[in-house]
Specification:
Blueprint (H helix, E strand, L loop, with lengths): L1 H24 L14 H22 L5 H51 L27
Helix pairs in contact: 2-3
The protein binds zinc ion (ZN).
The site of zinc ion has 8 residues, from loops.
Length: about 140
Amino acid sequence: MSDSTLIIALTSLLAVVVLAFVLRVRPQDLPPAEKPSPFAHLDERKAAIYENLRDLQFEYRVGKLSDTDYQNTKTDLQKQLAAVLAEVDRLKAGTGSEVNGTAAAAAAAKSAVKASAFKCSHCGAKFERELRFCGECGKAMSHV
Ligand SMILES: [Zn+2]
């Protein structure tokens, strides 16, 4: 009897500790918070919202807030957070594709110039540098 009581007590204690740990680390443990971002003002807003969520959870747990207040404020903060995260994603996606697009376009333009300069007149294979013989068909390449 004393053995099973002890086990139950230990299991309960473990559950409480795990729960407390999960509740404590979850808000600041979300991946977006760890990523460095060039959008400082959005990061600041995001950090402020995380902090508000932490404070809110703390105040709720110590009994300063009613369930309704807690839920309403939490929902509100989560909406703000979602909006900020969406904005960050949108800006990142926009900037990312812009940068990649520019780089890809530049690379494509560069290789297009080179490729058109060294094209095999026999098989049409394109090369980035001048060759005496075509690497594809092996025939002598004449450069125009
Ligand atoms: Zn060829």
